[in-house]
Amino acid sequence: MKTSLSNFTAARARFCGLVLSLIAASASSAFPQTPPAAVAITVDVKKPIGPMQPLWAYFGYDEPNYTYMKDGQKLLTELAALSPVPVYVRPHNLLTTGDGTPGLKWGSTNAYTEDKHGQPVYDWTIVDRIFDTYIKRGMKPIAQIGFMPEAMSVKPVPYRHYWKPGDNYNDIYTGWAYPPKDYKKWGELVYQWVKHSVARYGAAEVKTWRWELWNEPNIGYWKGTPAEYNELYDHTEAAVHRALPEALLGGPETTGPRWDKAADYLRGFLEHCRSGKNYVTGQTGTRLDFITFHAKGAPKLVDGHVRMNMGTQLDDITEGFKIVASFPEYSKLPIIIGENDPEGCAACGVATNPENAYRNGTMYSSYTAAAYARLYELADLYKANVLGAVSWSFEFENQPWFAGFRDLATNGVDKPVLNVFRMLGKMTGPRVAVANPTALTLPDIHNQAQTQRADISALASADPHSASVLVWNYHNDQLTAPASEVELTLRGVPANAKLQHYRIDNEHSNSYTAWQAMGSPQQVTAVQRKALEKAGQLALLKGSPSTVSAKNEQTVLRFSLPRQGVSLLRLTW
User: Can you tell me which family this protein belongs to (predicted)?
Assistant: First the structure.
């Protein structure tokens, strides 16, 4: 009897389970799962909203001697080629003493030494080699006047550092970071450099450059006081404009203004230029041709994965714009964001800084696309005259493959992030209106909404014969997620326009995933190198180019965009 009852109970349970599964299947059939709605973006090609200033055509790096090395020259050629306008390049260490041997966060030119009698000896050989490399490619230097030559430093010993990733960052601040023994000798050095540049390249060329004094004087890069920096600036300004009155000189290249001490330093410098006593002339104020400061994000590890923080970078920009606007005399002055990056240390690889693991793959690409697009928004909002924003990223010669430095190429092979700049270089004409009801706003990003949901939006430009739309699918967390559907409506497009759809994702424009597919080799064969170089170029989606139909000058394009992917849709007619 007990056995029969047990069998009955089991049979009833099986029957109930079958009934429940049938009900669930019926419900699923009657009420199917609704896929997430496509992100609806509308671009009005005939509605310009502002100029498409090439803010992105600016790059910089610590190690100037990489400039003329094999992979450095190759990358500079590619940077020059991707831009329709001259690219500006900002290197450190152009006056640092040494024999030109490169190192991480180090470089030297030996431009200034002194003989046994303490008389100046100028040698522009290495500086010329660096600048010749730029000029040959139609590029323009942001000629950073620094750092302090050993013979001129008030505290020259120790001078040369040998920093490596994992060492204390403060170890780099050696004798080159100190004020000069003699400010007049410093001024004469600057005068001789500018005068030599004019003689070598011509005044018409040199007046298109940007000259600037030092880097991040509010931290260890400058071991003097703010007053001593202002004094150095006055002597620099007098010397630059004595050699070439039309030359453009700016500063102070402080760190991110969201930090109170950096904000105070920037304000103090602007106040000195506006109404302080000039250390050279004794009169009030000092000429200032443009203003510079930096903006950085703040990635970290959360539960074993990278979490970015674009909000802090945009906060730096916002505070910098507010400070400039608070000086009516300078509110229309050009601004260059001298370093504009996801974080601070380009030479800190993944091995020592795992929070930098975003750098090799597409997360760096989507972050860069979204960050530069928001810079245009901020410039519009604060009516800031922004000339450019320097991506502090170049290449590190003779380092391991994909070591996770913040660079654009590794061992001569382009990384995915470089293709974002290639995309931006293809965008012509003024910016045009983009409508996106689900787009994250600037306050959303400030409040870390990019951690709660994906940031999927667009930047667009158009001219009489083309339209370009940059679309990104960015998220602060480096986690896998399904692709998102995008429905892009373009208004003002004539019939039968040609469409080129460029893409950066795991399968396109991505040398990193190609390298991983090879087994992540550190000894790369010639055949593998050729394949990696091809994978590093900007790629079209399968089926592109194509012809799109338009009705009443409107067309709708639908596509899937993977997480951390970037698309550029370029229509020509």
Answer: Belongs to the glycosyl hydrolase 39 family.
- Both tokens of 254, joined, read 């402080």
CA distance 146 to 96: 7
Q: Could you give the angle at which helices 310-325 and 362-382 cross, rounded to 10 degrees? A: 20
Is residue 379 classed exposed, middle or buried when 0-12, 13-18 and 19+ CB atoms within 10 A define those classes? buried
The DSSP code sequence of 334-347 is: -EEEEEEESSS-TT
CB 198, CB 206: distance < 8 Å: yes
At a CB cut-off of 8 Å and minimum separation 6, what does 75 contact?
394, 395, 408, 409, 412, 414
**Tokens representing 547?**
């012809």
Rg for the chain (alpha carbons), in Å? 27
Supply 324's token pair: 């400039």
- Which structural domains are found in the chain, ordered by start? 59-76+86-379 (3.20.20.80)
Identify the CA nearest to 221 among candidates 162, 179, 177, 268: 177
The token duo for 395 is: 């290449």
- Phi/psi for 28 (5° steps) reads -65, -35
End-to-end CA distance of the chain, in Å? 86
